[in-house]
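Why does residue order matter? Because the sequence determines the fold. Keep that principle in mind as you read this record.
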Amino acid sequence: MKVRNFILSGIAAAVLVPGLYAQQRASAGSRGSFATPQDAARYYENLVGRLAQQVRSMQDENAMLTASNADLKQRTARLENDVRALSAEIASLRKQIAADAEVRKNQLNQLADKLSKPAPAPEKPVRPAPDEKDDPVELVEHVVEKGTTLNALAKAYHVSVKDIMTVNKMKKPVIYAGQKLLIPVPKKNQKGK
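Structure:
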């Protein structure tokens, strides 16, 4: 409304100042000449209307861009928070993996220490049958512990895997924790007899 009043007051001033109106008429040659001040007022009102519509359109577009910008800022803030949370979670997982690796390393070291120690005293010697008294081998019962392998047992008792499998009538070299195996251990002082 203010713009329209401003334009109308400009037109009225042009009418009052004959030289200015004549100048506008001369420059309006490309738009067509104004026969009367009312024609000029209509032309400028149409022009102001189109300009006002363009301004409204630009204001609407500006409002949409402002809303879109605000939405993008919110999304960016959410993503930054997610990245921070994921970074903290990754750091926590790395610490947990390192701690788990340390525990596994300690367990493997303990198992290696256990396996490298001399074989434990026979838990329960099995008496040989009467016809086996001259046999240079004594059968010792061994309870398998978690993580023990046939190779480790054979090495600890100084016998072969094949001998252990034969005595225990095993078809496959697979053992499990808690399993009782007979180990064919060479008798001591057998050579001296």
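The helical segments are 2-16, 18-27, 37-116, 150-157, 161-167.
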